[in-house]
Design brief:
1 helix; mainly beta; Quino_amine_DH_bsu; about 0% helix; Lipoprotein; disordered N terminus; signal; single chain
Length: about 350
């Protein structure tokens, strides 16, 4: 819930971890694929905590190892403003004293990080932040959404779509503003070709979020129907199929916090279908994208289930869903998201 005045801790609590699952409110059912004791990891998923700490999580065992830290990040990583090209990962952090945004560029091969203060043009107003960031492979630049005066709710200020040059970080406007349409809060984005899919809300409540399709070539905005879902679709991700998004839908009137169901959104029929055979799971946070492992053809996310933290994996080509309990989740917290993957040398 957006508060009238947000300082760093509160901003993260709002934008990144709105509905963390508590111990006595977590799902009680068990299910999914059980991880055998002798399982051997093929991939390590790379998870980023809000303070820049990096972890490796085994794709078969769920074993967690702390591997390093992005230098310079303090506390306010905005997870929907994290995206990757083939060689680099871009991580945005917003600070408040003085107000400024910092973009970190992490080289995947060398592990080295550079950073720059984002210089928003004067026309963008005061205390503007990047609340989404996606890599545009076609144009080799970044697509972002900015929000002026990030500390205030109901601010009635511009929410602009922008392009960012990854060489000099110059910002140019796409002449698209979501605020005249009533939108203030952005929870998740996914770029498919030159169409940006945006989970956006006109209120502080994530359950009221719409799914928008922004055509970047035409500078048009369309609200897509959510036929088949009781509420919404969140934490969207795309696996290369131009006709499909994967995400999670919140469960209305649940008896515990943040219950979600994995769903697939068909962009041709504009309908949502729930992934079958999945036990009850709970979102750790709602403001991020769901990661896709291209080499394995699998979506991966961190979720709560049965009072535990879990790695979940969904493979669209087979419909297979796995739930892997993380045996040593200490240090992960709910302020964390999977941002990359590395294949292990066996």
């Amino acid at each position: 819930m957006l508060l009238k005045t947000l300082r760093p801790v509160l901003l993260l609590a709002l934008i990144v971890s709105l509905f963390s699952c508590s111990e006595d409110e977590a799902p009680s059912e068990t299910g999914g694929s059980e991880t055998p004791v002798q399982a051997e990891d093929i991939f390590n998923y790379i998870a980023l905590r809000n303070d820049g700490t990096l972890f490796a999580i085994g794709d078969k065992t769920g074993k967690v190892v702390q591997t390093g830290k992005i230098p310079g990040i303090e506390f306010n990583t905005l997870f929907n403003s994290v995206t990757s090209s083939a060689s680099e990962t871009f991580i945005y952090e917003h600070r408040f004293d003085p107000p400024r945004g910092i973009l970190y560029v992490w080289d995947k091969q060398s592990g080295e990080t550079t950073s720059t203060i984002i210089d928003f043009p004067e026309e963008f107003g005061e205390n503007t932040a990047l609340i989404s960031l996606d890599w545009d492979k076609d144009n080799q630049n970044l697509i972002g959404i900015t929000r002026e005066n990030i500390e205030q709710s109901n601010h009635q200020k511009p929410v602009k779509v922008v392009r960012i040059n990854p060489e000099n970080f110059q910002i140019t406007s796409q002449d698209i503003d979501l605020n005249p349409e009533g939108y203030e809060n952005i929870f998740s984005t996914s770029l498919v070709g030159q169409k940006l899919y945006v989970v956006a809300s006109k209120t502080e409540r994530v359950i009221n979020a719409d799914l928008l399709e922004i055509n970047l070539n035409q500078n048009s905005i369309e609200v897509l129907p959510l036929t088949g879902a009781e509420t919404n679709i969140l934490n969207i991700g795309n696996g290369g199929d131009p006709n499909q998004l994967f995400g999670f839908s919140t469960v209305a009137n649940s008896n515990f916090m943040a219950e979600v169901r994995p769903v697939v959104y068909n962009l041709q029929t504009e309908t949502i279908n729930e992934v079958a055979g999945v036990p009850r799971i709970s979102a750790l946070n709602f403001a991020h994208k769901t990661f896709y492992n291209k080499e394995q053809g699998t979506f991966a996310a961190l979720m709560g289930a049965n009072n535990t933290t879990n790695l979940i994996k969904y493979t669209p080509s087979t419909g297979n869903f796995e739930l892997i309990t993380i045996p040593n989740p200490d240090g992960l917290s709910s302020l964390i998201n999977i941002i990359g993957v590395e294949k292990l040398k066996l």
